[in-house]
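Posted in: Structural Biology > Protein-Ligand Complexes

Title: Requesting predicted complex, glycine in pocket

I'd be grateful if someone could produce the 3D structure tokens for the following input. Sequence and ligand are given below.
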Amino acid sequence: MARGAQADVLVIGGGVIGLAVAWRAAQRGLRKVVVVDPSPGGGAAHVAAGMLAPVTELQYGEEPLLRLGMASNERYASFVAELTEASGGEDTGYRRCGTLAVALDSDDREELRELHAFHQRLGLDSTWLTGREARRLEPMLAPGVRGGLHVADDHQVDGRRLLKALIFACERANVVIHRAEAVELLVEDRRAVGARLSTLETVTADQIVLAAGPYSHRLPGLPEGVLPAIRPVKGQILRLRIPEAYRPFLSRNVRAVVRGQHLYLVPRENGELVIGATTEEQGYDTTVTAGGVYELLRDAHELVPGITELPLVETSAGLRPGSPDNAPLLGPTELPGLVAATGHYRNGVLLTPVTADLVAEYLATGEVPDLARPFTPARFSPARPTTKAHA
Ligand code: GLY
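-- Reply #1 --
Done. Output follows.
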């Protein structure tokens, strides 16, 4: 078996989280950084709509996650500006457009009003609108819309462009990207020391970052109990095209809860309109189903009837990596040498800048930054309970 060179950092998983961690680690002066992934630039971000929505995606009881999301959102503009420069000019499709969450009936309106009150208690910037005011902002909304919340700071980025820019930035920072699967974690004397690859090579490293999304806990060789199970949560999603003559079709992200499902429409500056997403817990299946597409189109049509005029150009499905408390796992695991950057569930694209900064900080200094403390994997260890990620 060929034995590769010793790396400072080996990142297992070349999705948006793994690539951003690798790029930041290289910037922090870690000399040799290696990423392994059979399809770098894939993963959930390749499918995702790329909504950056810490406020409109907020769930009750998730205030620490809100703080992390807000911190990441605040870093986004400078993160993508730096990334564009570092990648040689790649545009990430970052758009500071704001988000409008709307209610389709009086029950939805009550729920949205409660969410607004919750936002106000937390001091978040969100503005209540009547149905008429919401339609004035977005004239394509259905006449029946009963009210809405305008959140000026929930924006969007294009996950595919972000991934492409990260690959270029990694390459320019001398990160080595191996197109191979990590088939076994190598552990010696109770320390993670590297990985064996599908190419039969091995890569050894001082520190190993596990950023393999819903596959993280399944890596052969990972000792039991080091990571909790990361469940795959399927999301089916549609891409439509807004012909020039119809623009601007929507000027900002629009979302609603329709029949209990989160529905969102994300209009890009290049004319793409992304409609998502189903939430299904069915294992590792990524089949696009007629039922999934039907439900998304039916619900989106209720919200914005004009979508039926638009060309449907792509249907796809991805897997969100859901940790047991739906918050990410960031930082050292109980296995020395092994660091987690996984379990971002619905928030991987949003949490990319802050995850990369916090994990790179830990890799460079050995210190867990304060912002990461509620999210270390130790919270799932019965032996060493720490602050819970959720209040
Ligand atoms: N963040 C949106 C989703 O996971 O569907």
